[in-house]
Write a structure and sequence with these properties.
With 236 residues, the chain is mostly beta strands. The protein is 0% helix and 55% strand. A seven-stranded mixed sheet has the order 1-20-17-22-15-13-14, with no helix packed on it. Strands 2-3-4-11-6-9-12 form a seven-stranded antiparallel sheet, with no helix packed on it.
């Protein structure tokens, strides 16, 4: 088993007045040669956007972009004509493919919008751009892993153009569980959204991250009530 540990305080940070953001991997003005990506996971940004502000229209291509809302609401518009408001408990997926423009604005004039934005390299380039959004049943993650992303295309559920599976679990203090990787050769990046856990002997606190590879199974125990995201994806 091979592991890498990213303490929350070691992430890149930028405050733009309207945007307070933390970067687990190199992004924008934050560059660290040893933190470019974890396998095909390229970006893991932890954003807080002030009320009545946001990102204007900007382009993407050949990237799978996943947005997980934590607090508040985010309004999405794109060049395909999609308009949506993403709320806590919802997830958005965008395959940028051959190219897309989109904007993201806080839907509230007063309250901050907090979210995770994740970029994954696709396994097929220049696909037709695609947008999808879904509300998740939060009870399905109580002391177990709820699948929120899988490889696609699929008829139901959220999917991306990659051999990747995302799971979220909410675990009571003292609860112990295991995670089995879905595909041989994949690694898992664990991100603690809230609370604290121990993963294979390593203590992880709020917003800490840990990558695990060269194994197919690992254990996790909550040392406080915790919410955890696991991104199970190819290492190359």
């Amino acid at each position: 088993m091979k592991t890498i540990y990213h303490k929350a305080e070691s992430r890149g940070h930028a405050s733009h007045g309207w945007l307070n953001t933390y970067h687990t991997f190199s992004f924008a003005n934050y560059y660290a040669s040893d933190r470019m990506h974890f396998g095909v996971l390229r970006v893991l940004n932890d954003d807080a956007i002030d009320g009545d502000t946001g990102f204007g229209m900007h382009p993407h291509d050949n990237m799978e972009i996943i947005t997980i809302m934590l607090e508040g609401a985010l309004e999405h518009k794109d060049s395909m004509g999609n308009i949506g408001v993403i709320k806590p408990g919802e997830i958005q997926v965008m395959s940028a493919g051959t190219g897309i423009h989109h904007s993201e604005y806080n839907h509230s004039k007063d309250d901050a919008a907090k979210l995770l934005q994740i970029w994954v390299f696709p396994n097929k380039r220049n696909v037709t751009p695609r947008y999808d959004q879904m509300a998740l049943e939060l009870s399905e993650r109580k002391n177990r892993w709820q699948k929120i992303i899988e490889p696609g295309p699929v008829d139901k559920g959220m999917w991306i153009q990659q051999d990747a599976w995302f799971h979220v679990g909410q675990f009571d203090k003292g609860e112990e569980t295991h995670y089995k990787l879905q595909r041989e050769g994949n690694g898992a990046y664990i991100f603690v959204i809230e609370g604290s856990v121990i993963v294979e002997g390593q203590q992880l606190n709020r917003r800490d991250g840990m990558g695990i590879s060269e194994t197919n199974l690992f254990s996790l125990m909550a040392t406080a009530d915790a919410e955890v995201l696991i991104m199970d994806l190819p290492m190359s």
